[in-house]
Structures are given as structure tokens and as C-alpha cells.
Amino acid sequence: MHSATATRQRSTMPAPTVALYQQVKDFIARKIQDGSWRAGDRLPSEHELVTQFGMSRMTVNRALRELMEQGRIVRVAGVGSFVAETKPQSTLLQIANLASEIRQRGHDYRCQVLTVERISATLETAAALELRTGESVFHAVCVHLEDGVPVQLEDRFVNPRVVPNFAQQDFSVQQPSEFLVRTVPFDQVEHVVDAVLPSTEQARLLDMDETQPCLLLTRRTWSS
Fold first, then answer.
1. Exposure string over 60-97, b if 16+ CB within 10 A, otherwise e
2. Count of structural domains within the chain
3. Do residues 154 and 60 share a domain?
4. C-alpha to C-alpha distance for 88 and 122, rounded to whole angstroms
5. Which segments within the chain are labelled E, that is strand?
């Protein structure tokens, strides 16, 4: 099945410096997102986090409390904090690792990078990223292939304030989605799914007929 995906990464306007409690939240969230800490794993104690970050117990406690309220961790009085079990949800509500899915099927995965550039945001892109029109954004286009057959076209915009080193990555080795999930803790994901006919250029890149419908998945993610 051929599919096309349009993906956007956005963040609200960041403060000049990241709040202390948010640094602790980001550290824990990143460990959970990249698989270092799995469901049921015990987190470092408040005392250990206080020592590691050099922050007050109140600051660390706030970070843990907010993570608990977001359903990411479970706190047991007198025992400690643990990574929460993942709640059942539709595959479309997750950020899937396409490369891993393809390799798990025993097939060959390859990412063909077509464009990685820094451009001025159009009105539509700026609105999606909550930036000013014309403000600088990263733009990447790549085709994902399974056994040499194009299966997904990715057109992505990234806020440079959130990921300033995005353009320096080798996405033929680590696909953009995987890099962002491992690098930027995200708090919210929005998906919009449509069945559409590809443009002439999209059909060419996906090696499909222009009259054949494809799946368009538009995704936005928020960080902090």
C-alpha cells in the first residue's frame, strides 16, 4: 500500500531559559520515549534527582507530580515512582518507527533524503508552528522505501528554536521521526487523516498512478 505523509513539528514560543522543573520533566520524558526506561521501571528517587540536578526537593517534586498528572509515571507513597503502563490506543495516535516496522517484517528499509533546507515559513507553515510568516524553519523531504518500493513520502517542517541541529543530521541513517522522538520530549500529538489523490510530483516520487488514492497523514507535535 502506498501512503503519503505530511508532518509538522511545532512548539509554543519558548521562554529565554527552560524552567528548572521542566528540565527534570524533559530528562525523564526523554528516557521514557527513547526506551531507556520501560513501563514498570523504577525512576530515580527524589533524593537522587535532587542530587543529580542540584535543585530543590520542591522543584523535583513538581516535575514528578506533573508527569503523574499527564499519565506518564505512577507514584506509590513510600515506595517510589515508576514508568506508567502504555494505555491502549489506535496505531494512528502513536508516532510509529517506520524503519523498525519494516525490518520486523524481514524486509529491507531505506530512507532516500531529497531535501534538507532552511526556508522562510509560508503563511500556512507559520500558522501551524505558531511562528511569524517569513520566520526561518527547517524543511525536509524524504521517501521511505520497503524492499526498494516507495511506501511513504514525508514532507516535514521543524521549528529551529526547538531542534537547532536538525539540518546537521544524517537522515539516511536515522529517519527524521526517529531522531525527533529520541531528541525532543513531546507533550501532545495531533493527527488528521485524509484519503486524497496525489499530485503529479507526489505520484512520481511514490511510483504510483495519479488516479490511485493515497493516505495523507498530517501530524503536529508539541513540546513543553
1. bbbbbebbeeeebbbbeeeeebbbbeeeeeeeeeebeb
2. 2
3. no
4. 37
5. 3-9, 73-76, 80-83, 109-120, 136-146, 149-158, 188-196, 214-222
Q: Residue 207: CB partners within 8 Å, gap ≥ 6? A: 2, 149, 150
pLDDT tens per residue across span 52-108: 999 999 999 999 998 888 788 888 888 889 988 865 544 445 566 788 888 888 999
- The string of DSSP codes covering 145-172 is EETTEEEEEEEEEE-TTT-TTGGGS-TT
Residue 143 near residue 120 (C-beta atoms within 8 A): no
The reply to whether 59 and 160 lie within a common domain is no
Residues 70 and 169 in one domain: no
3-state secondary structure (DSSP) of residue 139: strand
Same domain, 9 and 48: no
**Cα distance between residue 130 and residue 163, in whole Å:** 15
Q: Could you say which residues of the chain have pLDDT below 50? A: 1-4, 6-16, 89-92
* Residues of the domain holding 126: 3-14+89-222
Task: State whether 78 and 112 are in the same domain.
Answer: no
Strand partners, 111: 144
| Domain match, 94 and 57 both | no
Domain at 28, CATH number = 1.10.10.10
- DSSP annotation of 15 reads P
pLDDT of 143: 94
